[in-house]
Amino acid sequence: MSSSDSGATPVRSGLTERRNRRSVGLGFFASELAVLFRRRRTWAMLLALAAVPILIAVAVRISSSGSSGRGPAFIDSITQNGLFVGVAGLTIAIPLFLPLTVGVVSGDSIAGEANTATLRYLLVSPVGRIRLLVVKYLAAAVFCLAATLTLSIAGILIGIALFPVGPVTLLSGDTVSIGDSLVRSLLIALYATVSLLGLSAIGLFISTLTDAPVGAMAATVVLSIVAQVLDSLSQTEWLHPWLFSHYWLNFADLLRQPIEWSSFGQNALLQLGYVFVFGALAYGRFSSKDILS
Amino acid sequence: MTTAVIASPSELAIKTDGLTKRFGRQTVVDDLALSVPRGSVFGFLGPNGSGKTTTIRMLLGLAQASAGDISVLGERMPQRLGGVLPRVGALIEGPGFYPFLSGSANLHRLDSADGFAPRGTRSERVAHALDRVGLSHAADKKVRAYSLGMKQRLGIANALLAPRDLIVLDEPTNGLDPQGTREVRSLIRSLADEGTTVFVSSHLLAEIEQMCTHAAVMRAGRLVAQGTLDELRSAGATRVSITTPDVEAATRVLLALGLDPGLPDATGPVAASVAGAASAGQPGTILSAALPEAVAPEDIVAKLVADGVRVRGFSVDHASLEDLFVALTGEGFDVVQ
Ligand SMILES: Nc1ncnc2c1ncn2[C@@H]1O[C@H](COP(=O)(O)OP(=O)(O)O)[C@@H](O)[C@H]1O
Ligand SMILES: [Mg+2]
Question: Are residues B119 and B159 in the same domain?
């Protein structure tokens, strides 16, 4: 760019220029992330998630001197090693808190735009309906990552603050260094992120069905609960491997030496299937939908 | 009633053929043939619920037509939507913004959605658009804190973010005070001076009459008139009114001259009012008739006087657009259904 004080170029001339090729949409993706992370609601959800491991750690610290032997295994182990607090927090948050926040973000994706009437303006910009769906989905995925990382990191920090920290004894009995165990904590956060990708796609699809964001959010969250209930019933055993929540808590394999990747792979494959199916449904619904909001 | 606009397709900014939209069993837009010449300020007039917004949604590819063809800026819609819409700015059924973002941030966001809008000039274009609608002072205020009129202005600013060939404004003066309405009118005029075609819908005739070169009138989903304002005006007949106590003699004279007193009078048959309406408090009845082109008004007066009719008042009135629109849309501008 030339310096602005060169009076020779008329100020407005640049304004009439138009790109002759369409940009890929990174700018719009960045804008989508900015909108997402500029909302107070997003930060409130991330803070609430960060509070989960903090509450656990504080409660355990106050109440226990010496293990009770009851409660989930991870809760017991955090008194011995603070590095476990992050994993314990994730374990607690995966069934309800994480699906709740993911339901809010993905359920809001299209219906929220319809509700603020910004959808029609995005579409006549024109954003392109497919591009909008893809960007919305990617933003929801980024939120999943932000949510699980927030939880893990808050857990690790509060663990370091309240409990002794040292080399971690894995499920396989091996002991790994602090650095190695931090890497594994992040891997588990990544596992939880991948776990939520299917639900995000379902939320995106539901969001294309309505102009009422709250309805789409609620429906997405309810579905996540229904899936987990079905997963716990022996009568629906044939269905279990197909439920998107089936592998949600199977990240223990990442705590073995060497790391057992098969459940990670199975989970990723299943989630990918959900992304394709519900992505296609969302596209089918949204590409021809009358925007009358 | 429809006056055809004669122009080749390439001279038309918008052209529709048999455009129809049904919601269930209700036909909301019915067999619409719009012709919007390039460079015109085109008023799209109709009562609330007559199908204006639905038509605009179809023009912009937001809703699918149940039947019919659309071309915008010479390209088929919605097939060529990606190429057409960057050249079109629009305000559709009120503005829509993120309440938690500032006015300027909202425009940045919408501009980033347009893949053809250059990023380098974005800030400058946003500032320029805000300036044009008089919102520079509120650029950094959250839209949540905007008044309805400010949101409406911001909506118009969004339509002006990039150089456009066509600007579609759906009821742009809704929620604006008289000052704002005047500003929008002058803004539309300046856009037209730059060569932009402006398609503006309204349920207010006065608004259209003051700023448009062309107009189309909708009634319950159907197009009932279309053309330049002059064409529309001439479609309404010139009328003569005679105030006289000699109603029968006057009627005879008028019939002999080929006029048809009574029929076109909206308020009823031959006698309209029996008070001293016209001349100096003297009683008389007002007779009204459409004036054929072949008859000169002075001949009517001469003939009336010759036949001994006491003429106490005489006037020639050109039908206002308002008369025409009330006639076209029947109930005037009340809500349909
Ligand atoms: N989503 C919809 N479903 C059913 N009917 C609708 C819908 N949107 C609009 N209508 C009907 O279409 C008609 C025209 O509406 P609209 O185009 O908004 O009129 P205008 O903009 O001229 O006021 C109205 O009778 C309205 O009730
Ligand atoms: Mg309308």
Answer: yes
Evaluate: CB of B196 within 6 angstroms of ligand 1: no
Higher pLDDT, A253 or B65: B65
> How far apart are the C-alpha atoms of B194 and A76, rounded to whole Å?
74
> Between vectors from CA B213 to CA B207 and to CA B218, what angle results, nearest 5°?
65
Q: What's B287's domain CATH number? A: 3.30.70
Q: Does the residue B297 lie in any domain?
A: yes
Q: Are B130 and B252 found together in one domain?
A: no
A292 lines ligand 1 (CB under 6 A): yes
Cα separation, B224 vs A117, whole angstroms: 31
How far apart, in whole angstroms, are the C-alpha atoms of residue B198 and residue B205? Answer: 16
Indicate the DSSP class of residue B137. G
Q: In the prediction, which pLDDT does B53 show? A: 96
End position of a domain, from candidates B194, B219, B234: B234
DSSP-derived letter for residue B162 is S
**Is there a single domain that holds both residue B159 and residue B268?**
no
Query: Measured from the CA of B170, which atom of ligand 1 is nearest?
Result: 21
AA letter at A221: V
Whole-angstrom CA distances from A78 to A16, A44, A67 are 62, 26, 10
Domain of B174 in residue numbering reads as 9-234
CA A13 to chain CA centroid, nearest Å: 44
Burial readout A134-157 (b: 16 or more C-beta within 10 A, e: otherwise): bbbbebbbbbbbbbbbbbbbbbbb
Ranges of chain B whose pLDDT falls below 50: 1-7, 263-281, 332-337
Q: In the beta sheet, which residues pair with residue B166?
A: B88, B197
The SS3 call for residue A258 is coil
The residue type of B81 is L
CB-based contact B86 A292, cutoff 8 Å:
no
pLDDT at position A65 is 58
pLDDT of amino acid A18: 61
Distance (Å, whole) CA A279 – CA A273:
10
Retrieve residue A137's tokens: 């989905």
- If you search the block for the tokens 């060529």, which residue do you land on? B80
**Of the partner residues B90, B105, B121, the one whose CB lies closest to the CB of residue A124:** B90
Give the Cα separation of B193 and B153 in Å (integer): 20
The reported pLDDT for the residue numbered B168 is 97
Q: pLDDT tens digits for A4-59?
A: 333 333 334 455 666 566 666 688 999 999 999 999 999 999 999 999 999 999 99
What is residue B5's DSSP assignment?
P
What six digits make up the tokens of A170?
Answer: 């894995």
How crowded is residue B179: how many other Cβ atoms within 10 Å of its Cβ? 10
Q: Dig out the tokens for B4 from the structure.
A: 């055809």
Instruction: Count structural domains, chain B.
Output: 2
Q: The tokens of B213 are what?
A: 């070169």
Pocket flag, ligand 1, residue B46 (CB < 6 Å): yes
**Residue B70 parent element (H or E):** strand B67-72
Which pLDDT score is estimated for A15?
56
pTM of the model: 0.84
